[in-house]
Structure formats: C-alpha cells, structure tokens
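Data availability (excerpt). The following record was deposited with the supplementary files.
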Amino acid sequence: MAKFEKYTKDIEKAEKKLAKLRKAKEKEENKLLLQIAKNYVKLRRLENPEMSYDEILEYQKLEFEDLEANLSNNATDEEIEKVEDTEPEQNNYEEPVGFGSFE
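Predicted structure:
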C-alpha cells in the first residue's frame, strides 16, 4: 500500500509540474504572438504609412478569414480523400442461379 501512495504522490507532482510547464508555454506563445502582431503592424505602416491601426486590423481580419477558408477547404478535401481511400472494395460475387437448397 505504501508503494501505491508513493506512486500516487509522484503522479500528482508530475501533473502539477506539467500544468506549470503548460502555463509557461502558453505565456511564451502569447508573447510571440504579440511580437508577431507588433511586427505585422510595423510592416503594414512601412508599406502604407497612411493606413490607420483600424484599417490594418481590418486588413488583417480579412487575411485571417481567407486563411481560415483555405484551411477549411483543404481539410474538407483531405477528409474526402480519406473517405475515398477507406471505402471497402465492392464484391462483385453473385450467387449462381438455381443452386439453392434441395428439399
């Protein structure tokens, strides 16, 4: 029983550590996304200095919607290919006529 309790505590410690690592990873990802957004705005301002931040945001939303639509179409195409690949082959075997049970 002592081993079971020890393993349970070890599992709990590992789960806590994993949760902390996930939070740290999410925090770092958010920092990177923020930096990407800042760089994106700087790039758009360099390309077209007259664009306001709202216009840049609207432009980015449109690009994001286009990207989502393309990804959705690609995912649908991949699902169709998977279904076509996994369809069972039709068995063209037909029972001969007249060979039933003899009574």
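Summary of structural features: The CA atoms of residues 26 and 32 lie 10 Å apart.
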